[in-house]
C-alpha cells in the first residue's frame, strides 16, 4: 500500500513541490545566517575600533588644550576639559579589554586621575603621550581586525556559494528524477489511453473499425459530404457462401479466412478519407470520401480480383472452388439530402442483386 502510494504521480509532484520549497527555505536560512554573522562582525569592527579611537581622539584634543594653556600660564581653568576627558575615558575604560590591554589601560587610568590631582605640566604631557600611544594601538588593531574580517568574509562568501551550488545540484537531481518519472508515467497513460481508444473503435479479430464506429462515421457522411462538396461512396461486402465454408473447414479456418479478406480490404483502402469496417459476421463496410463513380467502379473490380488472388480454397462454393465476395455500392452526391438509413438500404439492395445474379460481382445503385 505504502509502496503504491509512493509511486503515485500525486505523491511525486508533492515531493517535487516540497523539494523546491525546502531548497528555497534552506538557501534563505543559510544566506540570512551568514549575513547576520557578517553584520555582527561589522558591528564589532565599528564599536570595538571606530568608537574607541574617536573617544581617545577627543581625550587627546582636550589634553592638548590643557597642555597649551599650562605652557603659557600656571593657573588654567580646565574644568570643562577635565569633565569631557573623564566622561570619554570612562566609556573607553569600561569597554572590553584583554588581560594585557587591561594592565596598560589601568596604568593609564591611574595616570589620568593623578594628573588632575597634581596639576603638573609634565604629567599632562605624559598622559597625552600615552593617549596617542593608545590611538595608534587601536588603529593598528582596527587594521588587523579588518584584515581578519576580509578573510572571514571571503571564506563565508565561498561557503555560501558552494553550499547553494550543492543544494541546487541535489535539488536539480531530485526534480529531474521526479520529472522523468512523471513523463514516463504520462507516456504510459498516453499509450494506454491511445490503445483503449483504438480498442474501443476496432474489431478485435480483424482489426478493422467496428460497427459502433461505422455508425458514427456513416451517420455523419451526408453532413461531411455537404460541407466539403464531396461525392462519397458506401460499399457493402459479403463473403460468398461463408456458412458453407465454416461448415466445411471449421470456424477456426473461417476466422483465418475472415482475417485474410479483412487484411486485403484494409491494405487496399489505406488512403486518407478511406475507412474499412467489419459490420458483423462475414459482412464488411467501406466508406470512401471525395470519390467519383469511375474510381469507385475500378475499386470494386479490383476488390473482386484481389480476393480471388488470395486463392483461399472453398470446395463447397456454388460458383467457384475458391473464396469470393459480392458487393453493393452507392454514391452520395452533395446536397441531395438522402438519409443514412436510406443509403444503407439502397446499398443492401445492390448487394442482394449481386448475390441473386450469381455472386462474385458488384452492383452500383443507380438513382
Automatic annotation (TrEMBL):
Biological process, per Gene Ontology: cell adhesion involved in single-species biofilm formation; negative regulation of bacterial-type flagellum-dependent cell motility
Keyword Transmembrane helix: yes
Keyword Membrane attributed: yes
Enzyme class per UniProt: transferase
One function term, GO molecular function aspect: diguanylate cyclase activity
Keyword terms: Membrane, Transmembrane, Transmembrane helix
GO CC terms: plasma membrane
Xref: Gene3D superfamilies: 3.30.70.270
The enzyme's E.C. designation: 2.7.7.65
Protein name in UniProt: diguanylate cyclase
Organism whose genome encodes this protein: Arcobacter acticola
Amino acid at each position: 500500500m505504502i509502496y503504491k502510494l509512493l509511486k503515485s504521480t500525486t505523491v511525486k509532484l508533492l515531493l517535487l513541490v516540497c523539494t523546491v520549497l525546502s531548497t528555497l527555505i534552506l538557501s534563505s536560512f543559510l544566506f540570512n545566517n551568514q549575513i547576520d554573522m557578517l553584520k555582527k562582525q561589522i558591528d564589532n569592527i565599528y564599536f570595538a575600533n571606530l568608537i574607541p579611537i574617536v573617544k581617545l581622539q577627543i581625550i587627546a584634543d582636550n589634553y592638548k588644550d590643557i597642555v597649551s594653556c599650562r605652557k603659557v600660564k600656571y593657573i588654567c581653568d580646565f574644568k570643562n576639559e577635565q569633565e569631557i576627558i573623564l566622561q570619554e575615558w570612562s566609556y573607553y575604560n569600561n569597554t572590553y579589554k584583554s588581560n594585557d590591554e587591561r594592565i596598560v589601560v589601568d596604568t593609564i587610568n591611574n595616570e589620568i586621575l593623578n594628573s588632575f590631582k597634581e596639576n603638573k605640566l609634565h604629567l599632562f604631557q605624559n598622559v597625552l603621550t600615552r593617549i596617542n600611544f593608545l590611538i595608534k594601538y587601536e588603529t593598528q588593531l582596527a587594521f588587523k581586525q579588518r584584515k581578519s574580517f576580509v578573510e572571514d568574509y571571503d571564506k563565508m562568501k565561498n561557503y555560501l556559494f558552494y553550499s547553494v551550488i550543492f543544494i541546487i545540484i541535489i535539488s536539480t537531481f531530485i526534480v529531474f528524477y521526479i520529472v522523468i518519472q512523471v513523463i514516463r508515467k504520462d507516456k504510459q497513460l498516453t499509450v494506454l489511453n491511445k490503445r483503449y481508444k483504438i480498442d474501443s473503435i476496432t474489431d478485435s479479430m480483424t482489426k478493422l473499425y467496428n460497427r459502433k464506429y461505422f455508425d458514427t462515421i456513416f451517420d455523419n457522411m451526408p453532413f461531411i459530404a455537404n460541407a466539403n462538396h464531396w461525392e462519397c461512396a458506401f460499399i457493402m461486402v459479403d463473403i460468398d457462401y461463408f456458412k458453407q465454408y465454416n461448415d466445411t473447414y471449421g470456424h477456426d479456418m473461417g476466422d483465418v479466412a475472415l482475417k485474410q479478406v479483412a487484411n486485403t480490404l484494409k491494405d487496399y483502402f489505406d488512403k486518407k478519407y478511406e475507412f474499412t469496417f467489419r459490420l458483423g459476421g462475414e459482412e464488411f463496410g467501406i466508406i470512401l470520401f471525395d470519390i467519383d463513380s469511375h474510381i469507385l467502379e475500378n475499386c470494386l473490380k479490383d476488390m473482386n480480383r484481389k480476393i480471388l488472388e488470395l486463392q483461399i480454397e472453398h470446395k463447397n462454393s456454388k460458383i467457384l472452388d475458391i473464396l469470393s465476395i459480392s458487393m453493393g455500392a452507392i454514391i452520395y452526391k452533395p446536397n441531395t439530402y438522402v438519409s443514412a438509413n436510406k443509403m444503407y438500404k439502397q446499398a443492401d439492395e445492390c448487394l442482394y442483386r449481386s448475390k441473386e445474379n450469381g455472386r462474385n460481382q458488384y452492383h452500383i445503385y443507380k438513382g
